[in-house]
Amino acid sequence: MVLTLSYVKLQEAFAVEQNKLGTWAEIGYKDPSGSSTGGSTSNFTYVAGTTAGTNDWGAYNIVGMNDCAIATAAVWKVQSTFTASTGNVVSTPSVTNANCKNLTPNFCAIGAGCSTTNSGSGTGNGGNG
User: Fold this and answer.
1) DSSP letter (8 states) at residue 121
2) 3-state secondary structure at position 116
3) Is residue 126 part of a domain?
């Protein structure tokens, strides 16, 4: 997902400049709906973490996609953490629904790698981003 790579690169640049992580608005990120606070397109809702470092980027499908059932909370997530002493940003993706993971095979190549946290019930495991 190109848009998550954009988010990760903006977060990394912001951390280098400001010595901290930032919100979507602070780093200049906008989701595909054009929102810097989270919005929706015809297929997905994007969720901005309210606290930098806590499920910073999230998305869920609002329409069924093959075996990936409609979700009500973030299915695809990227959580970034920042270590001030080293200036290191680690972005960790996760997919909360195994049935959705196959739709975005490259998503798990972001940052520190990917995990799937449930067997795919159709709704994501939540979180705010």
Assistant:
1) -
2) strand
3) no
Write out pLDDT tens, residues 24-36.
Answer: 999 999 999 999 9
Phi, psi of 98 (to 5 degrees): -60, -30
Please name the residues in contact with 87: beta carbons below 8 A apart, sequence gap of 6 or more.
15, 16, 19
Segments forming the whole domain that contains residue 28: 2-109
Q: What is the pLDDT of residues 6-23, one digit of tens each?
A: 998 999 999 999 998 988
pTM equals 0.80
- Whether residue 117 is contained in a domain is answered as no
79-118 pLDDT, tens digit per residue, is 888 888 888 888 888 899 989 988 888 888 876 677 655 5
Sign of CA dihedral 31, 12, 1, 102: negative
The structural domain count of the chain equals 1
